[in-house]
Amino acid sequence: MKIQILFLSTLLGVLFSAMLSAASYGPPIKAFHRSDFQGERINIHADWSVNSPHDYWNDAINSLIVPRGYEAHLFEHGGFRGDYIVVRGQWSSRQDRYWYNRISSIRLVPIAHPRGHYHQGPPPSHICGPACNANCGYLPAPTITAFEHHSFGGASFTITGEWSAIYSDDFWNDRISSIYVPRGYAVILYEDAYYRGRSVVLEHSWSPYTSEDFWNDRVSSIRVVRR
Fold this sequence. Notes:
Elements: H1 2-24, E1 29-32, E2 41-44, E3 48-49, E4 63-65, E5 70-77, E6 81-87, E7 90-92, E8 105-110, E9 143-149, E10 153-160, E11 162-164, E12 178-180, E13 185-192, E14 196-202, E15 221-226
Antiparallel strand pairs: 1-2, 1-4, 3-8, 4-7, 5-6, 5-8, 9-10, 9-12, 11-15, 13-14, 13-15
């Protein structure tokens, strides 16, 4: 009987500790190895820092999704040292190349005043992520779908925020032939990678009328914006 009581007490203690621990954590930041919100991912519930330069995730986070009501403080060095930026919503190193392969520690911070009201204005001396609106509030990055063939046929992939072919043999380099653009968004097509060369703005879904359309199989980078 004593053994059973001891076992139950221990089990209840473990469960209670787990509940307290879970309650102390906020919803996680989803951090990705690649800059397009794809690839390997880790979830960050609170403070996170690499333990050594050889840590697998040291200088390896290139996009992240910050939960609503929170902001992420991204630091250049471990232990929350060095240069840092503050982002909300969705962020990618494609929109700030300085931070490509440079993040070594992250803090998840609630956006609230002492009385508990969420902050609606821009925090002083903070740099907000590209997915934030003018007052630095939470807005998810816009998403569109690109297709391999005209009339929205063939293979497809989703673009969140922006995309660029990295190598000339990238599967999607010079291969896009139609794009679905949701209402309220616009798409900027670029002829060359990293948003260079000739460009055109699409304010609605696009598919070439003929194979002679200049932009058919010619797109190498794309930006998505709100109209």
